[in-house]
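dumping the sequnces here before i forget
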Amino acid sequence: MTALKRHRRLEAIWASEKGFRGWFSTVSHSDLGRMFLFTSFFYFGVAGILAMLIRAQLATPHSAWASEEVYAQLFTMHGTIMMFLFAIPAIEGMAVYLIPKMLGTRDLAYPRLTAYGFWCYAFGGAMMLSSLALGLAPDGGWFMYPPLSGGIHAPGINTDFWLIGITFVEISAICAAVELCVSILKYRAPGMSLDKMPIFAWYILVTALMILTGFPPLILGSILLELERAFGLPFFQADLGGDSLLWQHLFWLFGHPEVYIIFLPAAGILSTVIPVMARTTLLGYGWIVASIVALAFLSFGLWVHHMFTTGIPHMGVAFFSAASTLVAVPTAVQVFAWIGTMWKGRPDLRLPMLHILGFFFTFVIGGLTGVMVAIVPFDWQVHDTAFITAHLHYVLFGGFVFPILAGVYYWLPLVTGCRRFFKLGESAFVLTFLGFHGTFLAMHVLGLLGQRRRIHTYDADAGWTAINLIASIASFIMAIGLALALIDIIIHLFVAVRGKRSPWGAGTLEWATMSPPPSYNFASLPHITSREPYSDTPTLPSDLARGTGYLGDPQGDRRETLMVDIASGRPEALAVYPSNTTLPIRMAAVTGVFFLSLLLKVYWLTPFAVIAVAAFAVRWAWSLGATRDAGPQLIGRDMQVPLAIETEKPPGWWGSAFLLVANATFFGSLLFGYAFLWSIAPGWPPPEWLTFSILEVAIGIGAALAAPVLIRVANARVNASRPATPASAATLGTIVLLAVCLVSLILRAPSPTEHAYGATLLVLGSYGLFHAVLTGIMLAFVIVRMRRGYVSAARSGEPAIARLWVDYTAGAGTLCLLVAHVPAWLT
Amino acid sequence: MSILDPAGPAARDIAALWWVMLTGSVLILALVTVLTALSFRKRAQVPDEARLERTWILGMGLGFSMAVLAALLAYGIATGARLTAPVADAVEVTAEASLEGWTFGYPGDAARGQTADVLHIPAGQDVVVSITTRDVIHSFWVPRLAGKIDAIPGHVNTLTIRADLPGTYQGVSAEYSGPGYLDRRFEVRALDPADWQAFLSGEMP
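..and the predicted 3d for all of it:
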């Protein structure tokens, strides 16, 4: 087969549908990565306009530009859109687009999930945007502190838009995180062991793990607050056993890791681009990997530094102050490794490098003010002033916007295959840089002079007038700079001047294919022996196009790629992807109906939406698998591996495992909330306890202990090619029994609206019950699949996935029953 | 309203902390900028990688940053401990925030009624303010006297303030509390001993 014939053959298999329809049915990571990026930059524009309105309002004292109510919506939505609809999705877009190309493979682990995540983001974002258009946007500040955001003080729909819209959008973050973890660990080019991975993949892997453990506390908080607002469950009301501080803990348990979730991928861009710009390799790869992991751990230990003024005892805040300063160490390691890299090589002042210099200067200032506010007494003064606003913009603009612009300019030639024509980018950078520092350096001073954040105007005699005017003028210069950069990029997309392949001389794999990259990325998958394969083998692109790598001979119309051993990168299995489908967008639409029914309080619709989502999920899973064993597959270079569905741990097993990590964090947050209310909240003990029931506990825990044993019997019988339906049905029976006990717990718990204790028991019981129902559906699915011949000793993956969920549900169900009953029994 | 114009010991300690940190930060920023700029100069030979790793990662990244941070942290914790240490012979007052304004209460309430939006304190004495709220979260902040502390439903937080000299000091609620936030302000009036006694006995409004 010639290279051209191979290209045509692969294009026929991998291409998305042509034209408009292709947008809705594509499952290609290249398409969806670009869609994520386009949409996120659209929201960057929207939030930027809101920022300009804020600065216009503050330019002069007693400005009548925006009313107080409108102003509250402006600053709330500016923060919310920048954080949730710009920063996180932009990172997801970058990672979704680049990761498979950098890892030398053809797509992410779950192409349909990429699409589902994108559509949840698109629909959820539209929901948030419509609130702005209707003038009903959230207005309590982007961190939505109750009681101000509770039903008593904010009865309008504004807050519901935030809680429900953001939760909807977060589905996309969780989907992307699960998918990126599995892709990076299991879907790489053969031979690419962990220590040969491009550094960017390490950053994205750690970021994805942080999303899985950082987002669940916020999702829980949003659900609890919405339950309080919609149904009067008093989680955050002090007079009914709740505590508004619980929200702050849950919010910042998410909110601080969030800062690093945004910063780490940007740092990954820097670690990738700086060595290329300096014509050398990264200094201290191992140290950088260690510092990324250290950052991830430390970032979960410092959420309380957002709460230094809430009256937590000084010994407690001193601990978090230490953690907050300690987190600067791994950041410093990276910054100095980058400077050392520049010393090692010969840096060129090209456009991405300009943005990197912008990053250095801005981010170092942001880091230094960050250390300042980590020092508790200083934070007591500047907390909730313009100083904090200035600090966080230095961190986010310096640590995110400059790096991402460096990345956009760096990878743009890859995405379009063109080179820049009009050189607007340099002027754009200068305006952005000067405008940014003019705005936010000034805001530090305003904070020191006592200007609170979020005030909609100020008195002329406060002494802030001149500085505010300077900040506002500078902010418009920054806006012009950013608009120019955007125009530069748009011109680039439409005014095509063919560029050469790999214009920067980079050594990583994404450049070792055509630009723009074809739908299948690589005509054959490379065998990797070093960290910079393209530098070592300059003929790599043509070698791969000639089919010298793996999977160079497409079989039928299968979309094929390889799964590898996590540590060594040895090929383990051949994965076959589903092709173009509109299933993801339709499933996202019914998910949207679910959230919309909650938002508009048409609760009769909610169960129908849930059933529709479940039906789509079953259809989704049903389309996988096969009814006969295919046996070992030739993958080229004289190697044979089984199909992924004929391994013990098929892709779905890995996805379930990582999803359960997020799920366990959610459950952990719930238990934390229960313990927190119990020990800290005023208004405890509750007026009425749950009455202890030995029957409920014994039957429930007995069932929970039996289920994992029975599912193992079923698994063993599958592996021995013996009928496993009875054992699976028995497992289903124990799960039903567990569900019954949990229903009994919910029904017997004290009234959930009278005290936070009853409300917490209701949520705990419902969590367990939800999992029992979910696992029950899975077991029923597996039983039907067994009867239809989808399961064999070789194709034993589905019962193995069921086992994961049975184990989790049994554990969670047991814990729910214990934490509900043991305190009741003791008191 | 400026925290850099302190009128009491707590605010003065924090202002001093600020000037120390500002000086250090400017020096570090200058260092990093110079080091970055120097990487662009022309060099004859390529330095040895192991040595670069020692200099940049062990020396600067770990050694330098940890030394600076440890010193600063010790200074910060010591300051914080001093500012939160229990004080003897303090005057105790209460502050209750609400969306309608602040209500302040005094020792020996019998003679002295509560005051609205004006807190009276004796100048030159430590005053412990017990702070809570009737509705949403607010924050008690008198920038020239001390840092802020939140007023949280169901909780009582305390803050020690002290004004060196008699005078009037502006205070604000410093946690966003919805419409009307801008005007949620109060005043602290520090009185000399005679006026304070007169105030406590109810002779002064």
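The domain at 256-501+512-518 of chain A is CATH 1.20.210.10 (Cytochrome C Oxidase; Chain A).
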